[in-house]
User: What shape does this take?
Amino acid sequence: MADDRDDRILIRSRWGTNRYVFNFRNPVACVVFAGLALLACGLLYASAHPDTPQWEEKELRSAVKKATAELSEESRVGPGLPGYGEVLQSRIAGHGPHSESLLSSDQEARVVVALASPQPEHDYFGDSVEEADYTITADGTNTALCLTVTALTSKYGYSSVSFKTRNGSCPTT
Assistant: This one.
């Protein structure tokens, strides 16, 4: 008959102490030991790398600058269209800290783009100028930026979209 000690996951130590140790002759004990080691490593990693990346002032300014440069080149959407704040928010978050990580969708929630002026009306059939102010803030920094968006509309969309960034929150009207 096989030794009973081979069946148990925990056995008494053979070194004369009265402690229980893992029985590495049992394959289940080896799997349990490896699982506990991986769990310990994962907990250490998670404690050293918090899952809430924070923005810094420099990162926010850089992300706003890059996002506005992209939107200015494209000139497809403007402040008169519904949901323009969300477009700004996702573009800014795309240039923020950890934007390449799996947390990028969570990062969008950490950028706040609030309309500070009345929503401009889009003229679908003629030429006009649309202008709106947005206050941009982000978690981890007390910095607020006022972004003024000016768009020239044409019969077929937008001919140009320009941006002006100022420090501080936009005055609400």
